[in-house]
Amino acid sequence: MITSFSRTIRRFLAAALSIAAAALLTGSVAKAQDMATITVPAGSIEFNVTDVTKNTPASNNPQTLGFTGATFTGGDNSVQFLLSAGGQYFSAGTGNGSILSSIVQWKGTATSGTGTVTTSSLNWPNAVVVYTGTGTQGGANIWFRLKGPITGISAGTYSLTVTWKVQGT
Fold it and tell me: Is the pLDDT of residue 2 over 50?
């Protein structure tokens, strides 16, 4: 009985070694992943436009994002937060008309760790880098605005659906 068990183990080990060797030859080796605890804002930016001739700050400013407990592998050494608009235009809640998502701009301040806020505007359908942080933790407060004057709309509330993407770089 022990002999049979021993042969079974030898066959199993031989098969396992063959699979491992095949994986090494084809380059399909599992790699460790970058890890961090991530905080991102809600999936929308709200605006209450009272004067279409002026810049309008988002009513849910500032929006806070961040990461803690980051561990990096495979050459990565930072965490990037990217933002993309849910569409080329966004429509009114109580106002009339559509607004180009590309007139949404932001500025920000790093609040912890070492990081940089990229001042920019949305570029639908592309994701745009908002913040890059290095080290084990970092974060930022982001203030959004609609760049005025805004044509083709009336005063009212507007909401832009957005998607946050976080990646190691």
Answer: no
Cα–Cα nearest to 44, from 13, 7, 80, 90:
90
3-state secondary structure of 19: helix
For residue 7, pLDDT beyond 70? no
Please name the helix (run of DSSP H) or strand (run of DSSP E) that holds residue 80, with its range, or none: strand 78-85
Within a 10 A sphere around the Cβ of 9, how many other Cβ atoms?
Answer: 10
| Alpha carbons 134 and 67: distance in angstroms, whole number | 10
H helices present in the chain, as ranges:
2-26
Termini Cα distance of the chain: 55
Asked if the peptide bond before residue 149 counts as cis, ω within 30 degrees of 0, the response is: yes
Torsion of CA 120, 122, 126, 127, to 10 degrees: 60
73 CB-side CA count, 13 A:
7
Tracing tokens 């068990």 back to the chain, one arrives at: 5
Q: What is the mean pLDDT of residues 34-60?
A: 92
pTM of the complete model = 0.77
Tell me the C-alpha distance between 49 and 95, whole Å.
Answer: 8
pLDDT digits (tens, 9 = 90+) for 73-84: 777 788 999 999
Q: What is the CA radius of gyration of the chain?
A: 25
